[in-house]
Amino acid sequence: MQNKLRDLRIATGMSQGEFAAALEVSRQTIQNIEVGRYLPSLPLAIAIARYFRRPVEEIFIPCGVPADASPARKETGRFGSQAGSGSAG
Length: 89
Hints:
single chain, mainly alpha, 434 Repressor (Amino-terminal Domain), 2 strands, globular
């Protein structure tokens, strides 16, 4: 999983230590998330997203999705426009 955490943190002018203190985690946790050695828990990912006032999916990008891809998607409903196209059986 890719992430934009380092870029967002630097844009705010915060050090890893300052950002870690704001989230009440260790500097090492932030460092490991930034370099991709650690995936944050869901509560931590949400806290990070709230801190930057961005959607989680804008900060944490699944593999195979370009980092600059817009997280906005055409609204097609919860399961898309192909509901009922699964095989019955």
